[in-house]
Amino acid sequence: MAEPMELENFVRVWRLRRNWSQEELARAAGLSRAGISAIEMGRLVPSTAAALALATAFGCRVEDLFRRPLTKPEGASWAWAPARSRCRYWAAECGDGTRLYPVEATPLGVVPHDGVYEDGKLVGQAETEPGRTLIMASCDPAVGLLAAALARTADVRLIVLPRPSRAALALLGQGLVHAAGVHLSRADGQGGNASVVKDELGPGYTLLRVARWEEGITFSPGRSFGSVQAAVHSDLSWVGRESGSGARQCLDELLEGRVPKKLASDHRGVTEAVRNGWADAGVCLRLTSEEAGLDFLGVREEVYDLCLPGSWKSDHRLRALVNIVRSSNYRRALGDLPGYNSAVSGELERIV
After folding, report:
1. pTM
2. How much helix, strand and coil, in percent to the nearest 5, is found in the chain?
3. Which residue in 121, 153, 250, 306 has the fewest CB atoms around it within 10 Å?
């Protein structure tokens, strides 16, 4: 006789949501109370008819009540520990095996997850093969253009973890992401982002130039500042970014030691703080300032690069990424964005 199929079942969860007793559920589904108890305890695998009756009683799908346990991919490990006992996760081949990434907010919106971690177990059904997922740490608000192109032309899913430049480089150095966005150098700066990467990670990496973009001060319409210096010396409340971000580096140079009282996690967070009146001004990209309908004073042009591991040519996902950044369609779309200059997009620089 075949062994009974192992199932994760959520009948008790749904019953308690309805505030029903086992007897009440039994009557609604046309089953016995003893049968309901056995199903909830995992002692009985329900028949197809019983599963359909339970789903009808709750007004849900059978899949909401019963799932096959998701086998943990061989060699899989958490990129970092989940913050909660229940979380969704993404899976990607990265480094020397499959990594599991707790789902978090991303500039790409809600990206389908590959499974659910609950009570120490992985449940659910994987949506995407780990070998087709590329993990990037970046604060680029236009990264959706890359995600769309990768999905359309290379069948690669891009997951973007919003991180400031130095935090992104740290994850790359630990082998936890495939690419790290970095913009810690003025366009006319000595050494560019390469000197930062070499200091942080050492040689052997490759920089993929994505764009030059304009960073500056965003503030509410109606305020009149003739210059950057006039804005800096005005009585304004500032919102800043985390330490290690290019925007925070720019703001620190402007404020000359003064520390912003409020912090935002990304460029759009800065504009939201200003737009909603939580701060008077902040430093962000021209793109996000114009998206929010705010005024903008340009401060400097920066080089935005993606830092890739030295072995990027052996990874089909990273080869596809490089090809897309070099493509005329992507460069044209990027160059149409306010404050983005795509004339140098696709250039490669080896860090030695």
Report:
1. 0.78
2. 35, 25, 40
3. 121
> 48-58 and 33-40 helices cross at what angle (nearest 10)?
90
CB 128 within 8 A of CB 114: yes
What are the angstrom distances between the C-alpha of 324 and each of 68, 147, 177, 182, 303? 38, 10, 19, 18, 18
How large is the angle between the packed helices 11-18 and 22-29, nearest 10 degrees?
100
Q: What is the mean pLDDT of the chain?
A: 90
What pLDDT digit, counting tens, does each position of 150-161 carry? 999 999 999 999
Within the chain, all domains assigned CATH 1.10.260.40 are found at: 8-67
Pick one of 3.40.50.720, 3.40.50.12640, 1.10.260.40, 3.30.565.10 as the CATH number of 8-67: 1.10.260.40
Residue with tokens 């008077």: 280
The number of residues making up the chain comes to 352
Indicate the CATH number for domain 133-352: 3.40.190.290
